[in-house]
Specification:
The chain is an all-alpha fold and 332 residues long. The chain is 71% helix and 0% strand. The longest helix is centred in the middle third of the chain and has 25 residues, at 142-166. This is Tetratricopeptide repeat protein.
Length: 332
Amino acid sequence: MQHVEKKREGENKIIPFIPEGDFYFTKGVEAFQKRKFDIAEKWLKKAMEAKPFEPLYACQLSVVYTETGNYHKANQLLTNVLQVSEYIDCYYLIANNYAHLGLLNDARKHANIYLEKEPEGDFSEEAKSLLEMIDIDEDDTDDDNWDLEEEDDLLIYQETIFYHMENREWEQALPLIEDMMLIFPEHKTAIHDHAHALFFTGEEERAVEIEQQTILDDPNNLYSHTNLALFYHQLEREEDSRHHINVLLNVYPIHQQQKLRIAVTLARTGYYKEAYQRFRPLVKNQMKSHLSYFHWYSVAAYRVGEPAKALSLWEEGCKRHPKLSKEEGPWK
């Protein structure tokens, strides 16, 4: 009897199925093909955990980020691959991302590196087409080239800071903003990003002082009014906040980015009806890379009694910005 019992125990044992990286990768590609980018990201991250030195997995994840407009994040991933592996496809993918960011010199440089290393590679035709699309005059003078390089450096700073600010990664944004202020002192809007990042890293008093001084010098400064409206609201100084809100309610900018800034500020300070009215005219195609657009438009829609629209915006936002899915929805 003892022998039989042991045999039965052996028969009942189930060998667990532990998926390898290829299984996760296949699931990720399937989700990507269905344009379920948030699901694709999760599967591909699992694949990378299973096989951290497989460059193909990281490259496919970078393509997911490219599709969702996270070009900086995609290039960070690809650069990491090139540090440990000479995976040539990375050069084309990096070039493509730089082109989307408008950094044409860097796009051109990486497309040429790809073609030098893989003249008949899988992306050779795409790389040649990309180079044809880049409209940079071959006869530019050295000074002109220097100006272009300087402009590219500025755009890299702006895009990187934008990414960290949109994701509320204040600690990462702060040193970059401070560097940008030293290198490009003529770009005054960095002052407001600096104050914003300072406020949310615990230096509230210093942030308020910066904007108070700025608004003394320029009483109509839109960015100072949006920052102070938010800062005072966070500090529960509602009367002071309302003063700046009243200014914003009478401002109707032309530029989409400024319109968005007012709409987000109104939503974050509890003026949901007014925020909703400001969000509605925004050109959605120009807002795809803005996590704040989907987050706060969704909140405003829910608070004015449009739950279906709020849910639709939130779901689209989560697809384009997977980090948003980790936050509580507008109904919370």
